[in-house]
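Changelog excerpt: complex records now keep ligands as SMILES alongside chain sequences, and the structure block spans every component. Example after the change:
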Amino acid sequence: MTTLVIANQKGGVGKTTTALNLAASLSAASRKVLLIDLDSQKNSTSASGVNTDASSSLLDVLIDNKPINSVILKTEFKFDLIPASQDLISAEMELININNPTAVLKEKLRQIKYDYDYIVIDCPPSLGMLSVSALRAADKVLIPLQCEYYSLEGLAAMNQTIQEINSSTGDEIKISVILRTMFDTRNKSAREVSQELEKHFAEELCTTVIPRNVKLSEAPSYGMPALYYEPEAKGTIAYLALAGELINKYEKN
Amino acid sequence: MTTLVIANQKGGVGKTTTALNLAASLSAASRKVLLIDLDSQKNSTSASGVNTDASSSLLDVLIDNKPINSVILKTEFKFDLIPASQDLISAEMELININNPTAVLKEKLRQIKYDYDYIVIDCPPSLGMLSVSALRAADKVLIPLQCEYYSLEGLAAMNQTIQEINSSTGDEIKISVILRTMFDTRNKSAREVSQELEKHFAEELCTTVIPRNVKLSEAPSYGMPALYYEPEAKGTIAYLALAGELINKYEKN
Ligand SMILES: Nc1ncnc2c1ncn2[C@@H]1O[C@H](COP(=O)(O)OP(=O)(O)OP(=O)(O)O)[C@@H](O)[C@H]1O
Ligand SMILES: Nc1ncnc2c1ncn2[C@@H]1O[C@H](COP(=O)(O)OP(=O)(O)OP(=O)(O)O)[C@@H](O)[C@H]1O
Ligand SMILES: [Mg+2]
Ligand SMILES: [Mg+2]
């Protein structure tokens, strides 16, 4: 099993769009996939067609030791989902009271290690306890990045935060994949940022680039991944290509 | 003095772009303006051309009672700035230890009440203690919104959070202004979301709409507001119009 964490404290860079469409594409390639929505905005949850507030939530698993299987839902799209819930907003205040709070998610995911090929985690746009818990549980960290000025600064901040987590916990988290999202080749500064990335992060940078594609932003209003809304769209094909690239990278060795 | 808070827990909707360009436009209209960057990403700070880590920060003011004037910087663009600092990342953990932590910012801003016509606060994409402190200090709350599916859900969540703050503190915070940002008239779902907003939030909705305009995303890499980078650009003119609309709304009565 590979736990793939989609994180970036910069907002609106395509974390949810990547987590959802990657989960759909990996499951279309016959992998067993669990998508986990750690963001109290619940965007991945609603974009998967799930709109009810479940009776128990991931927070019950992390804090009250509820079995993790009790919060896993089946979706119509071949992947399973642990939905987000409103109580995630106050997760920080609740997690603080337990021992080694940011290590608990990793422990819980171990219990379902043999049930899935991939676990994909969608993070909120912050570096609070939930995002740190996800980073500590990750096998691979994928950073979606819009090619604009703020993203290079954000990447440096992300690196610094990961170093700080490693030095205080002894973990060895590192950024494994950088994905260019909403890429518009006509935009001069996007091309410049992209060239900077190729120069300084060639190893982590994905060959697949996700283009700006309106179908990706329309699909969530129908409660489905782009693969089920518009299978031929440029954005849909790009996420299928991403799944293929990651399968090649992580499974072929 | 009017304290204008730019907030939305949804990421990448144009909070920083709005805070910065509104501060620049209000100061171009000869108002005395202070911009406060509450986001540890420091985007408003770097886009104002300030790149040094100051010796003391807003957190020192909130926690160690440092005088607020000691953290105010002059920028080259007629408005003053309280820059963000790296220590804002751990603000939550530090503020928790003081009495009534989310009321402190409002108190501190009272001390500079006669120095400015407007205080504009840029918030991080979360609803933690810093954003709540800003909302509690606000005279007017401005919500930038991209017209896409997730934004209507985000607006409902924002409303709910504000109700919760009001019921636990006795405050009477309300959303005063909703601003449509990065608006692309060719995008069908953007037009649909915009029509929904006109139907349900006619009173709060700004007449000024900010178009998607590449000059707005290029200006930050030169460390300046769009007004000083490309004064004739569509995006620049839209933010000048927004300043005019707010001056009319808040000063003419
Ligand atoms: N490749 C793309 N082309 C067009 N629109 C896109 C693309 N990727 C994402 N979007 C749209 O951009 C907006 C932001 O994307 P998304 O919500 O996935 O980002 P996020 O990083 O998860 O945001 P947050 O920081 O709030 O969690 C959404 O409206 C989404 O539909
Ligand atoms: N009207 C616009 N036209 C084109 N690009 C824009 C516009 N407004 C903002 N942008 C760009 O979109 C991106 C997101 O905007 P911005 O950083 O202001 O959002 P934010 O809400 O402050 O994000 P965060 O949630 O991370 O704080 C930035 O690259 C910015 O330059
Ligand atoms: Mg998201
Ligand atoms: Mg911002």
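The two ends of chain A are 14 Å apart (CA to CA). Residues 92 and 129 of chain A are 6 Å apart (CA to CA).
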